[in-house]
Structures are given as C-alpha cells and as structure tokens.
Amino acid sequence: MVDVMRRRGLTAAAALLCGVLALTSCGGGDDSNGAERTEQSEADQAAEDANTSSAVISITPEDAAEGVGINDDVAVEVEEGTLDEVVLTSTEAGTEVPGTISEDQTSWRPDEQLDRATRYELSVQASDAEGREAHQVATFTTIAPENSFIGYFTPEDGAEVGVGMPVSLNFDQEITNRAAVQQAVTVTASSGQEVVGHWFDGTRLDFRPESYWEAGTTVNVSLDFDGVEGAPGITGVQDRDFSFTVGRAQISTVDVEAKQMEVVRDGEPLRTLPISAGSEETPTYNGQMVISEKYEETRMDGATVGFTDDDGEGEYDIPDVPHAMRLSTSGTFVHGNYWASDSTFGSANTSHGCVGLNDEQGADDPDQDGAWFFEESLIGDVVVVINSPDELIAPDNGLNGWNMSWDDWVAGSAI
Predict the structure, then answer these.
(1) End-to-end C-alpha distance for the chain, whole angstroms
(2) Catalytic residue selected from 198, 323, 352, 354
(3) pLDDT tens digits for 92-138?
(4) What are phi and psi of 235, to 5 degrees?
(5) Is the sign of the CA dihedral 307, 263, 267, 248 positive or negative?
(6) How far apart are alpha carbons 103 and 99 in whole angstroms?
(7) pLDDT at site 300
(8) Residues 6+ apart with CB under 8 A from 395
(9) Tens digits of per-residue pLDDT, 131-167?
(10) Residue 328: helix, strand or coil by DSSP?
(11) Cα separation of 284 and 349, whole Å?
(12) Listing from the earlier edge strand, what are the strands of the sheet with 382-386?
C-alpha cells in the first residue's frame, strides 16, 4: 500500500515538473517575436524623430496667463528655426491684432497697444532648416481696468494748435501717487520754454509754460506709465509718445461792455467783430479761455447746463447752432447766432453767457462773422473776456489754467 502511494506521488510530481517546463518553453524559450516588436518600436520612433521640427517656439506670456500688460508684455521668439506666421486674435471681437516679424524671422511683436480686460489667442507656426513645421498656441487675458490706469490726453497727436493749448491728461482712476505719475511724463518744447505740471485733482494733470507757447513751437510728450503704481493696486499700462505743433499766435479779446471782439494775429490786428455776450442775468465769465472744441453745427439745450424753466424744461433748445467753439466745460461757447436780429450784435448783450456772432442758419454762408471767425480759429487759440460783470472763470473749467498765477501753478506740481 505504501509503494502504491509513493508511485502515485512520484507520478504527480513528474506531471507537475513537465507542466512547469512546458510553460517555460512556451513563454520564453524563443525571443524572436519580442525582438521584432522592439525593432519596430525603434523604427517608429526614428521615423517620428525624423519628421519632428527642431524649431523651438517661446511665447510670452505663458498660456492661460491673466493680468497681462497691454504694451510690451506679449512676444514670440524662436530658436533653431524661423517664424512663418503669427496670428494674435481678440477672442471676444474676433479681430486680428497686427504685428511684425523681425527681419531675421526669429521674433515677433504686436504693432499696437492691446485692449484691457480682453482675452487673446496667439497662434504661431515656425519651420526649421529642413522645412519641418512647429506649432504652438497660447491664450491670455489682459489686465482689468479696475487694476490699471491710463491717461486720456489733449491735444491729439500731430495736431496744429493755438498758443494757449496746454497738455491736459485726464486719468480713468484716482491717482494718489502723484509724484511717480508726474515723473513718468516728459514734455519738451523746441522753443526751450520751461514746462511745469499742475494737478487740479486726483484725475487731472495739465502742463504749460509760464506764458503762452511761442508760435511755431513743436511740443513732444512722452507718457511712460507702464508699470507705474498710481495708487495701491492700480498700475499704469500706457507707453505712448505724441507731439503737436503750435501755429500762429492768435489772441481774440472780447470787450463785453463795448460789445466787440478784436482779433489779433502775431501781434497785428486782424479784424474787429460786433458781438452779443451774456445778459446781466446770465453774464459771461471774465478771463483767458482756450478754444477746446469746434463744431460746424451743434445742438444747445439749456437743460444740460442748468438753464431750466419752472417745468424743468430748457430755457432754450437750438438744434443747429452754427460755428460753435467751446470755451469752458460748463457750457461757454463763442458761436454763430442766426435767431437774433442783425442789430443785436454790437448793441446788446442777450445770451446765457456765450459770445454770439452774427451768422446764418445752415452754417453755409462764409461771409458771416461767425463763419469767418470759425475758419480763422484753431483749437488752442485764446479768447480773453474783459469788462463783464461776472467773476473770473475757474482755471479748471475747461483748458483755462492761464487764469492762475505762475507761482500758484508751480505750487500744484507734485515734483
């Protein structure tokens, strides 16, 4: 009985050993199939490497970046290759931002300032020396208005202006770090005149010389606000240069009592015009006023400047006032007047504070006084009002800082 059990045990052990040998033989005895797979994988990798461009694209800023600056914070570079195409698109508007690839085709920059609080997509294609293409895409969002500031400036770039035109900056955020912001502004005049800045409040900074600009002067302005902290958490995003030229020197003096305006150009009398200024109830401001806007025709509604009747309606509403030129923010204009009789001009002051000149409805008669003065005037020309029963106009009511002494003007500088 013992022998039988032993033989059965030996038989089972032999069977098990055979099974192990069989498994070993099936699993690893012949490695030809594995070698074929390895060779195939290496061949695929070699083929892939052969088709891969060696051009390396770098995009600034990083993909998905937020709070990106709008001036010099976006750029594309490539190594071991050249740029074929770069497309920067505003995803909200679907508009493409123009840009320029460098002459050696290794870098790209946008041509213009970007918009704030806008999402952009930047798509780049480059090629290496073998013509193999590389592609890269990045998206980013520019800085939000609540975290940044810009300065809206007057006059416009390239403008020809009168001798009274200041450089006026109006900021879209309250500036508390006034010295740093003012130091980021450079104003130079070809006449050599000293130019000083004056803060009227936290959002307005004007620059002017002690006396009017000299005729023929070129004024260059540089705004280097990009990265400047204007207030806690508020950073500048503007990097802009502009310039303007000063034309002939034209100063027009309105004598309210005499009801006349004498126009003097380059020191020589040009013409004397009969006018109608503000009435005793609504007199015209005294002082030096700068023409800040010109309209061949415009609507004037008394309700917009506080002249209303008992029902709250404007005391006047004229839809087609001809040849209007703004002298103050509060609504003082020198303009043509077609609704008063010809005899009014030079004999009676009847307006709500404006200086009126005889004119025709339609603004199409060049022989009228209003048309003549409009054509002969530049934005930035000075109109001086004297002998009015009203007070002196406030220096910040329009571009009228000339109504402040030079000492007071300089005292308003932050540097």
Answers:
(1) 118
(2) 354
(3) 889 999 999 999 999 999 999 999 999 999 999 999 999 999 999 99
(4) -115, 140
(5) positive
(6) 13
(7) 84
(8) 200, 401, 402, 403, 404
(9) 999 999 999 999 999 999 999 999 999 999 999 999 9
(10) coil
(11) 10
(12) 287-290, 382-386, 250-255, 260-265, 268-276, 355-358, 333-337, 317-326, 293-301
Q: Which of 91, 108, 371, 107 is nearest to 99 (CA)?
A: 108
C-alpha span between 291 and 227 (Å, rounded): 34
* Rounded alpha-carbon distances, angstroms, from residue 109 to 46, 83, 141, 171, 383: 36, 12, 17, 27, 46
Q: Is 135 a catalytic site residue?
A: no
**Does 56-143 match 250-401 in CATH topology?**
no
What architecture is domain 250-401?
Beta Barrel (2.40)
Residue 287 zone, left/alpha/beta (φ > 0; ψ -120 to 50; rest) = left
pTM more than 0.90: no
The half-sphere exposure of 110 on its side-chain side, counting CA atoms within 13 A, is 23
State how far the Cα of 291 lies from the Cα of 247, in Å rounded to an integer.
14
**Pairing, β 317-326 against β 218-224:** unpaired
Domain ranges of the chain: 56-143, 147-247, 250-401
How far are the Cα atoms of 32, 48, 168 from residue 40, in angstroms, in the given order? 13, 12, 73
Q: Class of the 56-143 domain?
A: mainly beta
Which residue is listed with tokens 């060779």? Answer: 39
Which residues contact residue 107 at a Cβ distance below 8 angstroms, ignoring those fewer than 6 apart? 75, 76, 77, 78, 83, 101
pLDDT in tens, 355-411: 999 999 999 999 999 999 999 999 999 999 999 999 999 999 999 999 999 999 999
Pick from 253, 283, 271: which is nearest to 368 by CA?
A: 271
The two most distant CA atoms of the chain are separated, in Å, by 152
Class of domain 147-247: mainly beta
Indicate if 354 belongs to the active site.
yes
* Alpha-carbon span 284 to 274, nearest angstrom: 16
- Catalytic member of 198, 323, 335, 352: 335
